[in-house]
From TrEMBL:
Keyword Hydrolase: yes
Family to which this protein belongs: Belongs to the peptidase U32 family.
Protein name from the UniProt record: U32 family peptidase
Entry keywords, A to Z: Hydrolase, Protease
Organism: Clostridium oceanicum
Pfam families reported in the protein's UniProt record: Peptidase_U32 (PF01136), Peptidase_U32_C (PF16325)
UniProt cross-references to PANTHER family, sorted A to Z: PEPTIDASE U32 FAMILY, TRNA HYDROXYLATION PROTEIN P
Domain Peptidase family U32 C-terminal per the UniProt entry, residue ranges: 322-403
Length: 407
């Protein structure tokens, strides 16, 4: 068994999500800075936000990795040296890179900045990892096409100080290691420079050349078919298998996802990993962890390529399963009067039963009673986004508790 507990690495699409990930138990976060990352439409971080996020993480003994993982064209290289130096000065723990030119530039201008190799580099064998290791790469994010047996063999053949990071949860691209040109051809948006339009999620029909306007489902289904549409990866039921394969960092996808998603996924994997390392011999999967994962918006789950079952990857719908809505974040709790102050996220009514999501505590229920607005006026619902409202609670709540309601 891997004697070192694997790192739980969470996505941080903005500063709020970074803090949520850290608060709910992530050992490290990965995020996009102001340049050269593969999530052009995420909030990403300004320099000031990045400084604050790094300080927040480091004060709590956690790490921050910055994605510099585009495949840059010539014009993307302007200002690269200054950007890499700035990341080093900000004390970023590592950068995640896929392009050899960026790696070479980093070694020239910021030689002490740790480099992790992105999954976009499609590394599928131990010889390739040895090549990158000799270039000074500290960690390799393996291609998503590898099985657990292949990862285990890789770990047995590479140096002990060369780490393996692998995705364990989240939305997966159906293209080889996420490298795709469909978006470029269909929309002009370059997926390898952070602007993917996700045409793999579109619904497609087949049309015979001489029978225009006659559309044939590729499967015998009048709704069409999603021939490239991938389910969401979920490996929480297989923590022992992941650990025994030697993976050093369990990576969660989702820089475009909500803080609610980050909280539920990190909470579930934190509990599962800790439970396994507390008592590997008597470890049992807790269905409450899956219940937690299924609260946030997701597609159907599958196990990817880990067990050599890629045929289970594609399915008939691109729609999300939404079991719960986040209805607010607790701003404060008045212990004297048992009054909760909440910032609203989705509409909620006086009398609703809601769930409370908090780090290190089982999810529990409370009822909203005596709802009032910020001026103390009685209200029947909180309909406006980000409005402040208050209610009485029979249980003590804490700042930053996430409040959820079943749909």
């Amino acid at each position: 068994m891997n004697s070192i507990k694997p790192e739980i690495l969470a996505p941080a699409g903005n500063l709020q999500k970074l803090k949520t990930a850290i608060n709910f138990g992530a050992d490290a976060v990965y995020l996009g800075g102001s340049k050269l990352n593969l999530r052009a439409f995420a909030d990403n971080f300004t320099d000031e936000e990045l400084k604050e996020g790094i300080e927040y993480a480091h004060k709590r003994g956690r790490k921050v990795y910055v994605t510099v993982n585009v495949f840059p064209h010539n014009g993307d290289l302007y200002g690269l040296e200054d950007y890499l130096k700035k990341l080093y000065d900000f004390k970023v723990d590592a950068i995640i890179v896929s392009d050899p030119g960026i790696i070479m530039t980093c070694k020239e201008c910021a030689p002490n900045l740790e480099i992790h190799l992105s999954t976009q580099a499609n590394t599928v064998n131990w010889k390739s990892i040895m090549f990158w290791y000799k270039q000074g790469i500290k960690r390799v994010v393996t291609a998503r096409e590898l099985s657990l047996d292949e990862i285990k063999e890789i770990k047995e053949k590479i140096p002990k100080d060369c780490e393996i990071e692998a995705f364990v949860h989240g939305s997966m691209c159906m293209s080889y290691s996420g490298r795709c040109l469909l978006s470029n051809y269909m929309t002009g948006r370059d997926s390898n420079r952070g602007a993917c339009a996700q045409p793999c999620r579109y619904k497609y029909y087949l049309m015979e050349e001489k029978r225009k306007e006659e559309y044939y489902p590729i499967l015998e289904d009048d709704r069409g078919t999603y021939i490239m549409n991938s389910k969401d990866l979920c490996m929480i039921k297989y923590i022992p298998d992941l650990v025994k394969s030697g993976i050093d960092s369990f990576k969660i996808e989702g820089r475009m996802k909500s803080a609610f998603y980050v909280a539920t996924v990190v909470k579930a994997y934190r509990a599962a990993v800790d439970a396994y390392f507390d008592d590997p011999t008597n470890y049992k999967f807790n269905e409450a962890w899956m219940d937690c994962l299924e609260m946030a918006s997701h597609r159907k789950f599958y196990t990817g390529f880990y067990f050599n079952e890629p045929n289970k990857q594609i399915y008939e719908s691109s729609s999300y399963i939404r079991n719960c809505d986040i209805i607010g974040i607790v701003k404060s709790f008045d212990k004297t009067n048992n009054v909760v102050e909440v910032e609203q996220k989705n509409k909620v009514y006086d009398g609703d039963e809601i769930k409370v999501l908090r780090p290190d505590v089982e999810i529990f229920n409370v009822n909203i009673e005596n709802m009032v607005d910020k001026d103390g006026e009685k209200i029947e619902s909180a309909p406006r986004a980000q409005m402040i409202f208050r209610f009485n609670s029979s249980k003590e709540l804490k700042e930053n508790d996430i409040l959820i309601k079943n749909k």
